[in-house]
Design brief:
The chain is an alpha+beta fold. The protein has four helices and three strands, in the order E-H-E-H-H-E-H.
Length: 80
């Protein structure tokens, strides 16, 4: 089996998020720093997913962005 050198992380999007906000590449030192630096519970709250394949991660990120935009549209409509 090939050595894993990097992973891609995807987190939930907000209505204002861009792809760079929800998708990022990390080697293991960067991943460890990320995990140490986030507040307790954030990993679960953001529904963080880890991918070995960039194209799968990108597809998930785009899906989350699209979903957050739809949610924002519904919330805006409800406030009117």
């Amino acid at each position: 089996m090939a050595e894993i050198k990097k992973v891609w992380l995807v987190v939930d999007a907000s209505p204002e998020s861009t792809i760079e906000d929800v998708l990022f590449e990390a080697d293991f030192p960067k991943l460890a720093d990320y995990m140490r630096g986030i507040p307790r519970g954030t990993w679960e709250d953001e529904h963080t997913s880890v991918y070995l394949n960039e194209s799968e991660a990108t597809a998930d990120a785009k899906k989350r962005l699209k979903k957050s935009t739809k949610t924002a549209s519904v919330e805006t409509y409800r406030r009117i």
